Amino acid sequence: MHAARFLDTNVLLYAFDLDAPAKREKALRIVEEGWISPGSTSISVQVLQELHVNLERKGISKKEIRAVISDYSRWPVVESTLTLLHAGMAEQSRWKLSFWDSMILAAARSSGASELITEDLNHLQDYDGLRVVNPFL
Asked: pLDDT per residue over 69-109, tens digit each?
């Protein structure tokens, strides 16, 4: 797998957020780019799990959530594996990040992406060749 960028859950969630129209507009553009250029944008099973939980909290029906997850499953998806877990723990030790942010970083790296699109890490921080971009600044 070699995607140009990896999307964190918050980007996908903002695409559904009617209460944050500016962020929603940016998120929708980012997601649209992922559909226009198949294979260019990756996610992980963790991202899909977090998306599921948060959409459920927003009151989205289980049927609609399954459809959304099914749609995003057509993108390159980094699987949750023991190898990824060990990579995430190594990222956590090296960068002193939370476990879940470290797992996102490990998944992004595993996808071959050079950009991690998220608002959860420092904008333009370079994690040894993986650059964070916060599109919501």
From this structure: 999 999 999 999 999 999 999 999 999 999 999 999 999 99
Degrees, nearest 5: CA angle 89-72-45: 20
DSSP 66-135: HHHHHHHTTS-EEPP-HHHHHHHHHHHHHH---HHHHHHHHHHHHHT-SEEE-SSS-TT-BSSS-EEE-T
DSSP state of 4: S
**CB count in 10 Å sphere of residue 96:** 8
pLDDT band for position 1 (cuts 50, 70, 90): confident
Give SS3 for 44: strand
- On the 0-12 / 13-18 / 19+ scale of CB atoms within 10 A, 112 is middle
Q: Report the C-alpha gap between 114 and 111 in whole angstroms.
A: 9
The structural domains of the chain, ordered by start, are 5-133 (3.40.50.1010)
Total-model pTM: 0.95
Mean local confidence (pLDDT), 55-79:
97
State how beta strands 77-78 and 115-117 pair: unpaired
- Residue 40 DSSP code: S
